[in-house]
Amino acid sequence: MTVAVVTSTVVTFPDGAVDGRSPVVATVPLAKGRVGVVTEATPFHPLDHTWPDQPGDHGELRADGVTHPVVDCVTAARPIDGGELHVGSDIPAKRGDDGWAWQVMHVVPEPGPAIGALAELRVDPERRDALSAGHTGCHLVALALNAALAHRWTKDVRTDSLRHPDFDQLAITSSAIHEDSSVDKYRIGKSLRKKGFSADGLDAALPEITARVNDRLGGWRATGAPVMIDRSGPLLTDRRYWTCALPEGRAGLPCGGTHLRNVAQLTDLACELALNTDGTTLTVRTTAVRTMARHLAARGH
Q1: Rounded Cα–Cα distance for residues 115 and 19 (Å)
Q2: Please, which of 188, 259, 264, 298 could form a disulfide with 224 given CB 3.0 to 4.6 Å?
Q3: Residue 117: CA atoms inside 13 Å, Cβ hemisphere, count?
């Protein structure tokens, strides 16, 4: 392992960047003939080891005349006073813990570039846009679902940014962002019922709830509401906050992923809801298909 850095990576993906240049500051041998490459700054979005919802970007890293395909992108961390560099699920700390440097690691086939080489970094823009559409759609569906289920709460609970009971954050157990889609799972168990959520007749009501959610999504998409990422600083560890100026108000929630710039970029936004047989898990499958604006622009359309 070769390491020459104990600072957190500067990231430009929150601004929508898909290319950049930066020196290589660390390399780490990985399994299956791969190498982890850390640069001082990067446009690549890595998989978050604590909430692995959005996959890492793919693309390429070119240094010293050699193009290295980036086949994955993950989070790494190392104590700032020295010590072992940990990767992904092997990181023993929580992001933001004092005393740790957090880095974006580009995974490439062996051999990797040399320390100090100036790397040209290029993200696959089509895959990035497709994942961004899936992530933007996921957040919008969560807000619409909160509104559609608001009448089922019998107690006061935390609310979302649109002042609806936050079913999404109170019940979610997993979220998976895919290209132009997402899958979210919610636990409807004893703890949620104790907080005041009524699941009585939920299965029979799902078609009506789904229709209400999708009607709201269609209205939001028609507004062309802008989407932004607010952040406290340029580092991977800095707070990032997704916001969207919807008709009901400015919606927002903490998010470390990538997003579209406007909901009008979505040509289709809808979800399907399903309960498992014992009624304890609600699965929400979202379709969020985006326009091909970047693709067409690259071809002169």
Answers
A1: 20
A2: 264
A3: 19
With residue 276 as reference, give the H or E element that holds it: none
* Separation CA 190–CA 195 (nearest Å): 9
Report residue 52: phi and psi, to 5°: -80, 70
C-alpha–C-alpha distance, residues 120 and 7, integer Å:
20
> Which amino acid belongs to residue 44?
F
Report the predicted TM-score, pTM, of the whole model to 2 decimal places. Answer: 0.92
H or E element, residue 88: none
State the Cα–Cα distance between residues 148 and 29, nearest whole angstrom: 49
DSSP state of 190: H
CB atoms under 10 Å from CB of 219, counted, come to 13
pLDDT tens digits, 240-253: 999 999 999 999 99
What whole-number distance in Å separates Cα of residue 77 and Cα of residue 63?
23
Query: Cβ contacts of residue 97 below 8 Å, gap of 6+?
Result: none
Sequence letter at residue 38: V
The secondary element (H helix, E strand) that includes residue 106 is: strand 100-109
Instruction: State pLDDT tens for residues 91-145.
Output: 888 877 788 999 999 999 999 999 999 999 999 999 999 999 999 999 999 999 9
Burial (0-12, 13-18, 19+ Cβ within 10 Å), 71: middle
Residue type, 173: T
Residues sharing a CB contact under 8 Å with residue 105, sequence separation 6 or more, in sequence order? 28, 36, 37, 38, 46, 73, 74, 75, 76, 87
